[in-house]
Amino acid sequence: MNNSRLHLFQGYGIELEYMIVHKDSLAIKPVTDELFKKISGKYTSEIERGKVSWCNELVLHVVELKSTRPEKGLVELADQFSKDIRSINKELASFDARLLPTAAHPLMDPDRDTFLWPHDNNEIYETYNRIFNCRGHGWSNLQSTHLNLPFYDDEEFARLHAAIRIILPLLPAIGASSPVLSGRNTGFLDKRLDYYQKNQRIIPSLTGKVIPERAFSKRQYHKMIYDRIIHDITPHDPNNILQPVWLNSRGAIARFDRGSIEIRILDIQECPRADMAIVALIIGVLKVLVDEKLVSFHDQQAWEVDPLHQIFQKTIKDAEHALIDNLDYMAMFGVGAHAPLKAVEVWRHLLNLVSKYYPEEIKPWLPQINTILEHGTLASRIVRTLGGIYTPENITMVYRELADCLMYNEMFGLCMEERS
Q1: Which of 76, 265, 299, 344 is least surrounded by CB atoms within 10 angstroms?
Q2: What is the tens place of the pLDDT at every residue in 71-111?
Q3: How many other CB atoms sit within 10 Å of the CB of residue 112?
Q4: Which three-class secondary structure string do you get for 217-258?
Q5: Residue 373's domain is classified under what CATH number?
Q6: Residue 301 sits in which domain range?
Q7: 17-62, pLDDT tens digit by residue?
Q8: Which DSSP category does 326 fall into?
Q9: Mind telling me which InterPro entries this protein's record contains (predicted)?
Q10: Domain membership flag for residue 229
C-alpha cells in the first residue's frame, strides 16, 4: 500500500483473492501465469489496470485483485472490482475457466492440485515451500480479503493497532465463508482460519496467537514481534531470503515501511459488494474505537492477547452463532449484557453504533450487511443450501451458483431470485 504517509482513515488498500477453476467441473485450473501472459505478452506477477491491479502470489490458480493506490470511495472501488472480475472471466473463457469465490475450494486436493508460481519471486516461494510444505489447505487452498489502513506516526499507529486488536476476534462472525473442505462439512464455519493459525506451527513466533501482542509503537513492535521472527527463522533460512515483514502472519500486520496495518483474517465473500460492505462496517467500528466514542484508548490498550484469543477460537468455529461470554468485552462496545450473547447480536449492536455516528458512510452498504445479519454468514448460507448432502455433484452445483454470484456481483441466496 503506497500511501505517501496518509493519516488515519484517509484511504484504504483492498485486496481480493479468487481461485481459477474449470467453468463446469470447478476443478482447479493452474493457469494464472498463462492468463497474465495472454494479456500482457509476457510472464509477469502484476498487471496494472488503472484503479485496480491484477496480481499473483505463491500458487498458479489464484488471482488477486487489489486497489492500485489507497482509495476513499469504497462504492466506486467495489464497482471497479466487479468490472475487472467480468473482464478476467471473459479472458478465462479461452481456458475453459472462470473465477470462483469463497475462502476455500470445497473439493480441492492440495497434494494433487498445488502448483507454485515458477517465475519471478519463485526463490521466495520455493523457500517457503521447503520450510513449511505449502501443499496443504492452509497454504494453497485459502483466499481472503485484505484491508490496509494507514497511519502517519507512532501515535496514530498506537490508536489504530489498539482498536484493530479489539475487533479481530469478531471478524469471523461476520465474514466466515469456508465450511467445506475435501468434500465434507469440517465442523468449522471458518476452517480457513483454523488452518491459518496452525500452518506455521513449526515456528510459532510467526503467527503467535493470531491476535497481535500489546505493541503500541514501532520500537515495541520490532522488539516483541519482528526481532523474535528474525531470531527464529535464521536456522531455517541461512541465506536470509525471507524477510520478517513477509513472515509475520498475525491477524493484523504492521507495515512501518508503508505506514499501514493490514488486516488479513477476512474470508473472501461471494462478490465484491459483500466484501466491501463488511470492510465498510469494520472501518466504521474502528472509527468508533479510535475516536473513543465508547471506551478510552487506555482501556483498549489494556486488553491482553489471551481473552481476545479465546473469543477468536469460538468465532472461527461457530461464526455468528458463537456465544460471547466475556461480559467485559461486550461492555466495551456498550453492550450491557448480563448473560452470553451470540456474536451476531454483538454485530447488530455495532452496526447500530456505526449507523449513529457515521450514517452516510454505512448507508450504501446496509442491504448487504442486513442480509448477512438476517440470513447468516456466507458459510452458514452455504451449509444451509447444501442441506446435509455432501456429494461432489451437490457441492459443485452450489458452488457454481456462487461463481455466478461473483460474476453478477450479487449476494448468495438472493442472486438467483434477482436474475429471474
Answers
A1: 76
A2: 999 999 999 999 999 999 999 999 999 999 999 999 999 88
A3: 9
A4: CHHHHHHHHHHHHHHHHCCCCCCCCCCHHHHCCCCEEEECCC
A5: 3.30.590.20
A6: 118-407
A7: 999 999 999 999 999 999 999 999 999 989 999 999 999 877 899 9
A8: -
A9: GCL_type2/YbdK_subfam (IPR050141), GCS2 (IPR006336), Gln_synth/guanido_kin_cat_dom (IPR014746)
A10: yes
